[in-house]
């Protein structure tokens, strides 16, 4: 798999406008190499990688490290989508525009499948990307809003592990929450 | 590197960790979260976590609860944030020295208040021949106001909109009950209004007297035949059903009291005006009486 992380035009856009990160500009050409759980190698702009709090604190502990950073819980597919999100995000760090950011975030989740969203959540959680987690949680919450238990099981790919007695009890206890649920 | 890998080794690839599920559920609403506890045992355990219910409780719930004499008892008996939430839904909390009650609407977690009769402005309220103050075991409050007899009926309640949930459509209700001897309120509507102080908002006419189911059945007929001899109507069969659902007649509440809609109010984000609710019948010049007023309740409009 070729990493989609490098994009020369994007790099120029990111580093140019901000005076605040001007001191970092010299370093921002630096790439960080990350290895996913399925052994894919990603070369990512340092500014993008620093969006991953987990990776950032790794480099705070070992600033001069040039090693490949292993991401043992991160498969390549959701990771490339996470990178896509973070590249958009750092644009807004340089040029804060809340309306545009919201639009961009909703655009990002709109084109993702249910499976994409569910797969990205543990990655965003592991990499500690709070903005992305909030966006994903909200997107999933919107998609499962007023949906049936059965729908949500298939949404998350989860099997029911309750006995029918347990299930009946829970349904009775929360009867008020089962009225007028959307049809699957 | 070792640090990175060891910290998260237990995380499997395809099953979301419980904390992630709890986070997702905290972005839903109380009703969705409760229903989805049935997805599987992992969801159930995530749904019960404080992370979820802390977000469903109002941001300032601690400060609201602290206004109650029962606050420490409530907090001590709540085994979790979910338990606290459900307690606040099921039993209104008496706050501000008995002047108001606070509760949460179960499906949404939005704030509901009832202003006790003592928290209302009742014209002639402190003049014994007209109004009387009683204690009533069926009321959540220590005192209720009994309307003995007045010509000028005027009741007003005010609440600051900052106390309400933002971006929410509310409905206000007068909560009351007829005594055995209600009179003067069957033919004459009362004028009700809900709106910010200083704003123009529509007034509506409603009827407070629907003492018994039987009498209510005749409402429609009676109002349209009132030019005729009243005696003739008594034995008349109900030719049209009572219009209970249009908000012009009182409805029975779960707690045994009646309520009549006073009007709606959309509480905008950041609204800080004072909301006023009023009930008056000062135009007919007739005497009327025989009501017990518990208070004015304001809660999210049903079905919204």
TrEMBL record, chain A:
Residues 30-88 form the SKP1 component POZ domain. Signal peptide: none annotated. Gene3D superfamilies: Potassium Channel Kv1.1, Chain A. Transmembrane segments: none annotated. It comes from the Eukaryota. Keywords: Ubl conjugation pathway. Residues 1-22 are annotated as: Disordered. InterPro entries: SKP1, SKP1-like, SKP1-like_dim_sf, SKP1/BTB/POZ_sf, Skp1_comp_dimer, Skp1_comp_POZ. Pathway: Protein modification; protein ubiquitination. Residues 130-177 form the SKP1 component dimerisation domain. GO terms for biological process: jasmonic acid mediated signaling pathway; protein ubiquitination; ubiquitin-dependent protein catabolic process. Part of a SCF (SKP1-cullin-F-box) protein ligase complex. Belongs to the SKP1 family. Involved in ubiquitination and subsequent proteasomal degradation of target proteins. Together with CUL1, RBX1 and a F-box protein, it forms a SCF E3 ubiquitin ligase complex. The functional specificity of this complex depends on the type of F-box protein. In the SCF complex, it serves as an adapter that links the F-box protein to CUL1. This is SKP1-like protein. It comes from Salix koriyanagi.
TrEMBL record, chain B:
InterPro entries: F-box-like_dom_sf (IPR036047), F-box_dom (IPR001810), PP2-like (IPR025886). Coiled coil: none annotated. PANTHER family: F-BOX DOMAIN-CONTAINING PROTEIN, F-BOX PROTEIN PP2-B1. It comes from Salix koriyanagi. Residues 10-56 form the F-box domain. It holds the Pfam family PP2. This is F-box domain-containing protein.
């Amino acid at each position: 798999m070729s990493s989609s992380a490098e994009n020369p035009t994007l790099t120029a856009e990111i580093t140019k406008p901000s005076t605040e990160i001007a001191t970092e500009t010299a370093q921002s050409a630096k790439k960080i190499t990350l290895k996913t759980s399925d052994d894919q190698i990603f070369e990512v702009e340092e500014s993008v990688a620093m969006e991953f709090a987990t990776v950032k604190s790794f480099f705070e502990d070992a600033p001069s490290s040039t090693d490949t950073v292993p991401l043992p819980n991160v498969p390549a597919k959701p990771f490339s989508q996470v990178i896509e999100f973070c590249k958009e995000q750092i644009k807004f760090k340089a040029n804060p525009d809340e309306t545009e950011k919201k639009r961009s975030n909703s655009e990002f989740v709109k084109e993702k499948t249910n499976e994409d969203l569910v797969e990205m959540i543990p990655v965003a959680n592991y990499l500690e990307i709070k903005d992305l987690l909030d966006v994903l949680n909200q997107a999933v919450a919107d998609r499962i809003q007023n949906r049936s238990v059965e729908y949500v099981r298939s949404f998350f790919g989860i099997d029911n592990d309750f006995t029918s007695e347990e299930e009946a009890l829970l349904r009775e206890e929360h009867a008020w929450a089962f009225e007028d649920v959307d049809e699957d | 590197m070792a640090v990175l890998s060891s910290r998260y080794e237990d995380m499997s690839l395809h099953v979301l960790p419980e904390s992630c599920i709890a986070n997702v559920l905290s972005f839903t609403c109380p009703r969705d979260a409760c229903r989805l506890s049935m997805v599987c045992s992992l969801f159930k355990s995530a749904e019960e976590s404080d992370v979820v219910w802390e977000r469903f409780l109002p941001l300032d719930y601690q400060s609201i609860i602290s206004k109650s004499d029962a606050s420490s008892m409530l907090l001590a008996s709540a085994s979790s944030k979910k338990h606290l939430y459900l307690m606040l839904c099921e039993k209104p909390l008496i706050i501000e020295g008995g002047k108001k009650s606070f509760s949460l609407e179960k499906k949404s977690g939005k704030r509901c208040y009832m202003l006790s009769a003592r928290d209302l402005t009742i014209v002639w309220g402190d003049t014994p021949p007209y109004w009387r103050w009683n204690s009533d075991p069926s009321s959540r409050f220590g005192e209720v106001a009994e309307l003995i007899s007045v010509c000028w009926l005027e009741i007003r309640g005010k609440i600051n909109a900052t106390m309400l949930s933002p971006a929410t459509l509310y409905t206000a209700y007068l909560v009351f009950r007829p005594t055995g001897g209600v009179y003067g309120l069957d033919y004459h509507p009362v004028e009700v209004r809900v709106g910010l102080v200083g704003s123009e908002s529509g007034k509506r006419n409603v009827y407070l007297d629907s003492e018994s189911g039987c009498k209510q059945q005749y409402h429609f007929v009676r109002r349209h035949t009132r030019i005729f001899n009243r005696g003739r109507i008594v034995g008349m069969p109900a030719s049209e059903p009572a219009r209970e659902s249009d908000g012009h007649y009182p409805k029975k509440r779960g707690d045994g009291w009646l309520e009549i809609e006073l009007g709606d109010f959309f509480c905008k984000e950041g609204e800080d005006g004072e909301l006023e609710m009023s009930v008056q019948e000062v135009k007919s010049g007739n005497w009327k009486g025989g009501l017990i007023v518990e208070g004015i309740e304001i809660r999210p409009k049903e079905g919204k």
